[in-house]
Amino acid sequence: MKALWETKLAQTVMQNSALRKAWKLVQPIYHATLKHLLFRRGMRKFIGGYEMRLSYEYRRHSSLRNPDAEVEWMLASVRPGTQVLDIGANYGSRAILFGKKVGLKGKVFAFEPSPRLYECLRQHVLFNGLNGIVEVFDWAVGKEDGTLDFYINEDEFDMTHSLVKPDGPEAHKRVVKVVSVDSFCDSRQITPDVIKIDVEGFEPLVLEGCRRLIARAAQVTFLMELHPWVWPEIGYDERKLLSLFAELGLCAKTQEGQPLGQIRERAQIQLTKL
């Protein structure tokens, strides 16, 4: 039996702009009904073989293209007791996976500046019994502390939010607090073992804000998603990014374990100290 969002009717709604606008009018009533009558504690969902509870609004969302392989790759560097930074946590599926893996002796610090996604992230932490293990922040992470304009896509069917103004009328701007990894870790007196970065093209700036941490850490693993088409907006290209890796003493490999070659499209890489 197909779920409602997999039916032809739902697919038609997602593809038709007029129907999407009509759906937005009834969406609050629909969600409130489901939330209070059926799914107060979330829905059970399996991602990469791991069970979790997610708010029903996000039951169809998953950016994992090959869940089993990607979850295995992502969690390979995580052990019970590991400290993790999840930068660009979105609605929290990866933060939940990290939290389940690190256990009571570990810690996950998850950052998500979109108000709607932050609230869902916070809710998912509670649904999955990870309060105290996963700590959440509605901040962006960048090169240095301060504030930045952040563009939020209000389209329910698009999970992309960015520090770069997108095309189209669906996004609005808000000012968000920005911290660097170095300042956050200094304030908490921590040296994380794993840092996951998925920030829609601003990954080079996040990495630039990790200089002190990289210098002092005996070993640290970065799990980074690259968005090269955004880099020109922040003065970066492939050559400059590879130069930054070398400057920081980091070795890059793709998810498949091969050395990083030409970067042309979205890719997941692992960075470790040489």
Amount of helix: 25-40%
Question: What letter string, H or E per element, gives the SSE order?
Answer: HHEEHEHEHEEEEHEHHEHEE
Give the terminus-to-terminus CA distance.
50 Å
CATH architecture label = 3-Layer(aba) Sandwich
Shape: globular
CATH superfamily: Vaccinia Virus protein VP39
User: Which strand order do you get reading across the main beta sheet?
Assistant: 5-4-3-9-10-12-11
- Point out poorly predicted stretches: none
Q: Give the mean pLDDT.
A: 84
- In CATH's first tier, which class applies? Alpha Beta
Number of helices: 9
Q: Classify the beta-strand content into a percent band.
A: 15-25%
Summarize the structure.
The chain has helices at residues 8-15, 17-37, 67-75, 93-102, 115-127, 181-188, 203-208, 211-216, 238-248, and strands at residues 43-47, 50-54, 83-87, 107-111, 134-137, 140-142, 146-153, 171-180, 194-197, 221-226, 250-254, 267-273. The protein has 274 residues and is an alpha/beta fold.
Task: Describe the model.
With 274 residues, the protein is an alpha/beta fold. Strand 4 (107-111), helix 5 (115-127) and strand 5 form a beta-alpha-beta unit. The chain has helices at residues 8-15, 17-37, 67-75, 93-102, 115-127, 181-188, 203-208, 211-216, 238-248; strands at 43-47, 50-54, 83-87, 107-111, 134-137, 140-142, 146-153, 171-180, 194-197, 221-226, 250-254, 267-273. Helix 1 crosses helix 2 (17-37). The chain has a seven-stranded mixed sheet. It has one domain (65-273): Vaccinia Virus protein VP39 (Rossmann fold), CATH 3.40.50. It is built from nine helices and twelve strands. The N and C termini lie far apart (50 Å). The longest helix has 21 residues, at 17-37.
